[in-house]
Amino acid sequence: MAPDTDEPMSLALQNKIQGIWQKIQQEVPQTQFNFDFWITCQPRRSTYSACRAILATLNQGDQFEERMILKIQQAYYLEAKNPSNQETLIELAEELGLNKNQFFCDLYVPET
């Protein structure tokens, strides 16, 4: 887990992760990544937001958990959307049919 931060990811780490993506694509050709993420997003090394989103999703039903995990992964790897951004997570929650206001509140309550 990478802690909460609004600090941009270092260029060295960005390059390292892109290299990992490229290696995975070479070794597992059916695996796809959208490298536009590195151009269109401001990468941050923070996984807490996505983890909180899963917990907030569970408050609206266990049946949403795996679907939200998949949506977060697809957003990041395939759609070049930043799962560290609140806006992205709220958009994904809406796509799942979750109550947007409840999801937003649940993202930031101390229990989450």
Automatic annotation (TrEMBL):
Official protein name in the record: Uncharacterized protein
InterPro entries documented for this protein: Thioredoxin-like_sf
Organism superkingdom: Bacteria
Organism classification: Bacteria, Pseudomonadati, Pseudomonadota, Gammaproteobacteria, Chromatiales
Pfam families: Thioredoxin_5 (PF13743)
Annotated source species: Candidatus Nitrosacidococcus tergens
